[in-house]
Amino acid sequence: MTTQKRVLAVIMGGGRGTRLHPLTSERCKPAVPLAGKYRLVDIPISNCINSDINRIFLLTQFQTASLHRHVQTTYNFDPFGGGFVDILAAEQTEKGSDWYQGTADAVRRNLLHFRSFPHDIVMILSGDQLYRMDFREIIAQHIERGADVTIAAVPFPVSKVEGLGLMQVHDDLSIVRFVEKPKDPAVIADLAISPAIEATLRTQAPEKRCLANMGIYVFNRSVLAEALDNTMTDFGREVIPGLLGNKKLYAYAFEGYWEDIGTVRAFYEANLALAQPLPPFNFFEPKAPIYTQDRYLPASKLNKCAIDHVVIGDGSILTDSSLRHCVLGIRSFIDEGTVLEDTVVMGSDYYETPEQLAENIAKGKPRLGVGKNCRINGAIIDKNTRIGDGCVLSAAGKEDGVYVNGAVIIRDGVLVVPKNAVVPAGTHV
């Protein structure tokens, strides 16, 4: 069978996303906006489509409305190719009324839905990572080695592996050991990949490296069913280590850019990196595009602005403002005299009509977007926010916490204005 007919992809829709709060206060992690016009879930779905995998299941549970709406309006396949993105939300059944208890539990409960489609292989993917991978390569290695399970892994320098799950492999990349988030330098050194494996990698590094688990798994169909015939709830901590010594487990060394968008700081830095002249992740790749919703918005309009290393989403309006190292989402509005630096603005879901604008002004409510003569530095401005004139917002020198009655939150050293928040004119944080 071809890749398209042989493989099913399963994308994990994420849990509560507590480490990414307040960006996840009204949405799940895969629905968080990214790079001006995308959402995080567009990354794994696009990787699947570009890898000739078009039968995709998306498992969801928390704050799913915006994710469902985005997927349903974006990914519509023609009826002849047999492709789909099928949303499988947590549901009550005769066997239980509780929600998914973890990644493995979510897949286990949906095995019956997968059986309706011919397949030999199941790929399990995260919905909140930024990377570009041709899955045909990991599948080809999986088949060539006769593996039961193949795990994608990133070579990380030993000095930067804190907080990552590491694996020890033989020279043929067969896995012999897992260690979850080791801290002992001696243990980390023992997990370093051998010179023989280093020699096979395209990139070379000045220090030793370990293979870190990316949370991307390729299972043979029968092995997946057997591995989930228990009460284990998590793949990385329970299921995969439990297969060690009983099944053929191999690592696949992935050498491209990969970022786990798990925290506010990680999200902030990954977005701002896209404004660099040569960003680590390239959205301008014609042979492997990242797909998203086609919104039919007008081109952005800039009037007398100073722009330096800025990504600007469609339908934005910027007037006599200064922006340095920023990412602006769709329908962003920046009024005159405002200065933004090192800031991510997610934009808006809609435009205000003249009548709505007049009504809001009469109520003393700022218009959508960022008002006049504001100074904002080191911030994330979520969607549909209203920031009044003359606001000064910066996390510099301030502790993490809640400010302006929740209209401003500082987390991981990043100032966040949550979705739909209103920051009164003249606010200083």
Describe the structure.
With 429 residues, this protein is an alpha/beta fold. The protein folds into two domains: 3-273, Spore Coat Polysaccharide Biosynthesis Protein SpsA, Chain A; 301-423, Hexapeptide repeat proteins (UDP N-Acetylglucosamine Acyltransferase, domain 1). The protein contains eleven helices and 27 strands. Strands 1, 4, 5, 6, 8, 9, 10, 11 and 12 form a nine-stranded mixed sheet that branches. Strands 15, 17, 19, 21, 23, 24, 25 and 26 form an eight-stranded mixed sheet that branches. Strands 14-16-18 form a three-stranded parallel sheet, with no helix packed on it. A hairpin with a 2-residue loop joins strand 25 and strand 26. The longest helix is centred in the N-terminal third of the chain and has 12 residues, at 103-114. The protein is globular. The termini are far apart. The relative contact order is 0.12.
Q: What is the global morphology?
A: globular
Strand tally, please?
Answer: 27
CATH class of the largest domain: Alpha Beta
Mean pLDDT: 92
Taken as a percent bin, the fraction of beta residues is 25-35%
Rg to the nearest angstrom?
23 Å
- Briefly note the CATH topology name of the largest domain: Spore Coat Polysaccharide Biosynthesis Protein SpsA, Chain A
- Regions with little confidence, pLDDT below 50 for 5+ residues: none
Termini Cα gap: 59 Å
